[in-house]
Amino acid sequence: MSIASKISEITSSLPASVRLVAVSKFHPASAVLEAYNAGQRIFGESHVQELSAKYEALPKDIQWHFIGHLQTNKVKYIVPFVALIHSVDTVKLLQEVEKQAARQGRVVPCLLEVHVALEESKFGFTIASLRTLFQQQAFANFPHIRFDGLMGMATHTADVAQVQSEFHLLSSFYAECKAQYMPSFSQLSMGMSHDYLLAIQEGSTLVRIGTSIFGERDYSQS
Ligand SMILES: *Cc1c(COP(=O)(O)O)cnc(C)c1O
Predict the structure, then answer these.
(1) How many CA atoms lie within 13 A of 183 on its CB side?
(2) Model confidence over 151-210: pLDDT tens digits?
(3) pTM of the prediction?
(4) Within 13 A of 99's CA, how many CA atoms are on the CB side?
(5) I want to staple 133 with a disulfide (CB 3.0 to 4.6 A). Which of 15, 91, 138, 216 is the partner?
(6) How far apart are CA 125 and CA 100, in angstroms?
(7) Cα maximum dimension of the chain
């Protein structure tokens, strides 16, 4: 199946409330262009250098989403054009985005990454730590950041009940945040190629799909 037909198969199965982020990391600009010509406009990348190169090479009406771990010293390279950062995982990173966004005169939309999976990960806030931060008003002084919502990943497992319970946990916490701390929240980013249907059932508004559109990634070039 072509990239175009995979895009149209996936987008036609999504409810109106859910947008597709086509995850193009490790795939060439030509593959992005193929998806673009099929009407796709939102693309997700997880490496700053790769994202910057694709931004330069590709049409300027693409909305680039950053979905990987972001190092503070690289923030300045993507702040001028990034449409949404899904993966803000520390207050320190937020401070750097704020600083660079102020410098560039932009307001940068961000999601806070929450760690809900069983796998050990250095990345993402725990729910408990975010709750404390909200209660301490830790996100009150970021005039150049728009807090759009939360992002998370479920455990990579065939155990459907486990994945469902993690998405449910994240979704409940999202509702709590919106009701109690962040009325401006509008986006819940969860779901990848193998689990996006479960994520949608639990209330996802942004699904990040790579492999099901572009095929397996070729890491040998990196
Ligand atoms: C790579 C990646 C994806 C896409 O994963 P697929 O399994 O290829 O759909 C989604 N989210 C994040 C954070 C990723 O790094």
Answers:
(1) 0
(2) 999 999 999 999 999 999 999 999 999 999 999 999 999 999 999 999 999 999 999 999
(3) 0.97
(4) 12
(5) 138
(6) 22
(7) 51
